[in-house]
Here is the input.
Amino acid sequence: MAGKKPKDAYVKRLEEAVKEAKKNREWRHEYMTLLMRDQENVKKEENMVKN
Here is the structure.
């Protein structure tokens, strides 16, 4: 493949699905909310280890 993307039907459908998901505001909001929660949990765990 040497750095080139294969262009079979599956890859094309997958690329389109990724583009649509990136456009979806609700999904983005949910992702960011989960990301923030996960980051807070990591900080809590780090603090628990320190104490």
The first helix runs from residue 9 to 23. The two ends are 50 Å apart (CA to CA). The chain is about 80% helix and 0% strand.
